Predict the structure of YdhG-like domain-containing protein.
Amino acid sequence: MQVTKATTIDEYIATFPEDVQQKLEQMRTTIKQAAPEAQEAIKYAMPAFIYKGNLVYFAAFTHHIGFYATPTGNGAFTEELSAYKMGKGSIQFPLDQPLPLQLISRMVKYRVEENLQKSKKK
């Protein structure tokens, strides 16, 4: 789908069809609300949020939006994520279903707290 390398999340989102753009914007807004101090970036050619280290990533694919709350975000929500296809560090939210925004928000807040704790130990 994506041809050019985006340097901002706005550029990344603009490369997709309108229906996918809406989902990507929902994802972005949910993450921003859950982690208002996080900075936006593009890492590994994907939208990323940084707060005291890498927080979460997301990306659009042909049939799903991938969400990456690595390294530990998935494990903390295994039961709630059981309805979705998952990889080692990824979750696939199908494009033909509503995004689980409340779950995504809780996962982002979990990762914020995790990064805060990690930064205090340094």
